[in-house]
Amino acid sequence: MIAYEIHVGTPKTHEKRSVPYPERLAPMIEEACAGKGPEGLLFGDGVNHMRNSGDKGWFANAVRRAQAFDPSIPRLTPHDLRHTAASLAISSGANVKAVQRMLGHASAAMTLDTYADLFDDDLDAVATRLNDAMPLVALPTGPQTRYARPR
């Protein structure tokens, strides 16, 4: 969407991209694709774009339905979901170059600068990974040379 108009075509980079999704969504995506051709749109009737006009659009209505089920769900936009997916992918250890490609960014630095939010448990995870890596490091077993400690 550009200036509240839907434009159909390739993204800014003019390259098609694949968007990975969790396996648990496969049955729902297969159902949504039923009867649509390979170039059909996933959402709606497969031909016409679903208009998203702010608070009255299809996405806002979907968020309101979810909030009725679970009031703790905050107000969301499609871009919030993109940001969350990218941040969770990076936080869970996904290859940054793969996330860059998924998002269509020109560089991995742009992806990290934009989407690599530091989660509260990220620093704990670093300590855990360092601890887990320790058995891979040969620790000295013989007499040790002692060095002066910094004051």
UniProtKB/TrEMBL annotation:
<dbReference type="InterPro" id="IPR050090">
    <property type="entry name" value="Tyrosine_recombinase_XerCD"/>
</dbReference>
<keyword id="KW-0233">DNA recombination</keyword>
<dbReference type="GO" id="GO:0015074">
    <property type="term" value="P:DNA integration"/>
</dbReference>
<feature type="domain" description="Tyr recombinase">
    <location>
        <begin position="1"/>
        <end position="128"/>
    </location>
</feature>
<dbReference type="InterPro" id="IPR011010">
    <property type="entry name" value="DNA_brk_join_enz"/>
</dbReference>
<dbReference type="Pfam" id="PF00589">
    <property type="entry name" value="Phage_integrase"/>
</dbReference>
<protein>
    <submittedName>
        <fullName>Integrase</fullName>
    </submittedName>
</protein>
<dbReference type="GO" id="GO:0006310">
    <property type="term" value="P:DNA recombination"/>
</dbReference>
<dbReference type="InterPro" id="IPR002104">
    <property type="entry name" value="Integrase_catalytic"/>
</dbReference>
<dbReference type="InterPro" id="IPR013762">
    <property type="entry name" value="Integrase-like_cat_sf"/>
</dbReference>
<dbReference type="GO" id="GO:0003677">
    <property type="term" value="F:DNA binding"/>
</dbReference>
